[in-house]
Structure formats: structure tokens, C-alpha cells
UniProtKB/TrEMBL annotation:
One Gene Ontology molecular-function label: thiamine binding
Keywords linked to the UniProt accession: Signal
GO cellular component, one term: outer membrane-bounded periplasmic space
Entry protein name: Branched-chain amino acid ABC transporter substrate-binding protein
Taxonomic superkingdom: Bacteria
A GO biological process held by the record: thiamine transport
Taxonomic lineage: Bacteria, Pseudomonadati, Pseudomonadota, Betaproteobacteria, Burkholderiales
UniProt signal peptide: 1-23
Cited InterPro entries: SBP
CDD domains given in the database record: PBP2_polyamine_RpCGA009 (cd13589)
Pfam family, one: SBP_bac_8
Keyword Signal: yes
Length: 343
């Protein structure tokens, strides 16, 4: 009987150890939802999981949500790897949430993809421009938009969708309208005034959710939007007649970026996953499946005639905003936006 008890105890201990080992084999990744999450789960993560024997625990949310999550969990970080836009990434680095990346293939990466002290790295270049329903435009004999000013056209009344200011696409639009009237990141008032008086009357909704954005287009409620090339490419891949333009004044650059989260006991595969995301093979997949401009010089990609990718000359011409100034003012701007624009 004693031997049986000892044996059962050994089995219980072994089962507990196995359970603990299984728990350690999870990699918690916080990143964008919608089509990006689908691509991560279906195309990007499975080969890595097979190689490293790890299970993906994916936490979907926009960049602001992810930084807020890191702040809320700072005494006990649950996230191992964070994928967020460049502006919020600068905030995450400043708040000490990102650990230096080890083993980056520096010679293979475009310099613009790297952050100071390798605390983060870009995994794709996105262009913020104008998306529209090509079929509807053709039926109505409307010319394709060519300028940011086209969003002021009264024919789009209650058909325009713009993400709010706490989303990078919406922020880019506000900065553009400020610049167009002699202002900019350091003088933002004109951007708010333009939305309030000229763009706002056309806005159906200020929508942050990618799923809701595509739903509004699919249902025919929306015909034109401010959105990113990656999101537009994924939408086009569903069969929707997407048109996407780089406005003549310039499209804006968004760097989708990643960092291993700084924590007392870092997940041993977090660094490997970050390195994996910038390999030529993964970069090519992200370009093909999601429309990212690659950050690895060795990635082989083909352009997409429906949603031209931010590569080559198009990538070189993208406008980069002053994130230092933006991040100093963003909380105040968000409150002002809620108060004045999304009342």
C-alpha cells in the first residue's frame, strides 16, 4: 500500500511538472485584431510553433489598448511580445516596457526599421491613404480620389469613415490637415478646425475597429475612408472591389513594430519570435498576405495592382510625422477630439 501511495504521489508530482512545463510553452503576443490576427494565426505562427514547440496566446487590440495593457500589468507583465504602431511604440520604450532585441540581422534591415538601442524593430511599412469602393465609384461615374482635400467633397456626405484620433490613421489625417494650412504637429489647431468644419459633415462614423470598417463598406453605408494600405490589401483579398490611393500631397508612413516585453522572467522564445518576424520569408508573407512594405532587403515581393504596396519610390516618398511632439501632446489632443469632434 505504501508503495502505491508513493507511486501515486510521484505520478501527481510528474503531472504537476508536466502541467507547469506546458504552461511555460505558451507565448503571449499582443497585437492588432481583425485580418492581421487571422494572418498571424494561420500563416505566420504555425511554422514557428512547430519549430519551437510553443503555443500562441494572442491578445488582440489596437496599439493604444496594448500600451494601456502593458501599463496596467507593469508589476506583473503577462505579455511576452508586443506588436504596435510606431508612435505608441516610442511611448512603450520610454516607459521601459521593451527589452533590447538580440541578434537582429542589422545588415539586412533598412535603417528606418530600427529603433534606438534596438528596443524595437519595424516588421512592416504601411501607407496611410484613401480607400474607396471602386465598383460604387464606377457606377456613379465618380473619379477616383487623388487628394486629401477630396474628403471635403459634399457628395460624400455621411459616407466617409475615419478612425478616431487615438488611432494612427486618424492622427495622420489631422496632422495632414494642419500642415495644409500652415500648421503641423507643433501647431495642430488647423487640423481640428478642418475636421470640425469641412471634413466632419461627411463623416458617417469615426470608427477604430477594422471589422466594423469592412462591415460598413460591405453593407454599402460607407464608400470612402482614411485607412492603411495593409488593411485595404487584406480587404481586397476578400473579393471586395477596393480602390486605394496615395494622395498627391503625400501618404503617411506607419511602421508596424514589435518588441520583446521587458520582464523579470522573460519568455525564452520571445527574442526568437521577434527575430523570426523580420526574416525574408516572414516579410514576404506579410507583404503578400497583408500588404506590408518589407523591412528586410532580402524579402522578395510582388506589387499588388489593386492596392499598391509601399515599396521602392512609394515607400521613399512617405511622410514621417514628428512622434516626439505628438506623444507629448497626444493625451490632450485625444481629450480635445472627444470634446470637439466626437461630441
Amino acid at each position: 500500500m505504501k508503495k502505491v501511495v508513493v507511486a501515486l504521489a510521484a505520478i501527481a508530482v510528474g503531472a504537476g511538472a508536466a502541467s507547469a512545463a506546458q504552461a511555460q510553452q505558451k507565448l503571449v503576443v499582443a497585437g492588432y485584431g481583425g485580418s492581421f490576427e487571422d494572418i498571424m494565426r494561420q500563416d505566420i505562427f504555425p511554422p514557428f510553433a512547430k519549430q519551437h514547440g510553443v503555443e500562441l496566446d494572442y491578445v488582440a487590440g489596437n496599439s493604444t489598448n496594448t500600451v494601456a495593457r502593458l501599463q496596467a500589468q507593469k508589476s506583473n507583465q503577462q505579455v511576452d511580445v508586443a506588436i504596435i504602431d510606431d508612435g505608441p511604440m516610442y511611448q512603450a520604450i520610454a516607459l521601459g516596457f521593451c527589452a533590447p532585441i538580440q541578434g537582429l540581422p542589422a545588415a539586412d534591415l533598412y535603417e528606418a526599421a530600427r529603433y534606438k538601442d534596438d528596443k524595437a524593430v519595424a516588421i512592416g511599412i504601411v501607407a496611410t491613404g484613401i480607400m474607396y469602393n471602386k465598383k460604387l465609384f464606377d457606377e456613379r461615374k465618380w473619379a477616383a480620389p487623388t487628394s486629401w482635400d477630396d474628403l471635403k467633397d459634399p457628395k460624400y456626405k455621411k459616407q466617409l469613415v475615419v478612425p478616431p484620433l487615438n488611432n494612427t490613421y486618424g492622427l495622420h489625417a489631422v496632422v495632414q490637415y494642419a500642415r495644409a494650412k500652415g500648421g503641423g504637429e507643433k501647431k495642430i489647431d488647423a487640423g481640428f478646425d478642418t475636421f470640425k468644419n469641412e471634413v466632419g459633415p461627411n463623416v458617417l462614423v469615426y470608427e477604430p475597429s477594422p471589422g466594423k470598417m469592412t462591415e460598413l463598406f460591405s453593407s454599402g453605408q460607407a464608400s470612402i475612408a482614411v485607412w492603411g494600405s495593409g488593411r485595404a490589401k487584406a480587404f481586397a483579398d476578400t473579393g471586395f472591389p477596393v480602390g486605394f490611393v496615395y494622395p498627391r500631397e503625400g501618404a503617411y508612413a506607419l511602421l508596424s513594430s514589435v518588441c520583446p516585453v521587458a520582464k523579470e522572467k522573460p519568455n525564452p522564445v520571445a527574442q526568437a519570435f521577434v527575430q523570426y518576424l523580420v526574416t525574408p520569408e516572414v516579410q514576404a508573407k506579410l507583404a503578400t498576405s497583408y500588404g506590408y512594405g518589407p523591412v528586410n532587403k532580402k524579402a522578395e515581393v510582388k506589387d499588388d495592382p489593386r492596392v499598391p504596396l509601399p515599396v521602392g519610390e512609394r515607400a521613399a516618398k512617405l511622410i514621417v510625422i514628428d512622434w516626439d511632439t505628438v506623444n507629448q501632446n497626444r493625451d490632450a489632443w485625444n481629450k480635445r477630439w472627444t470634446r470637439e469632434i466626437e461630441r
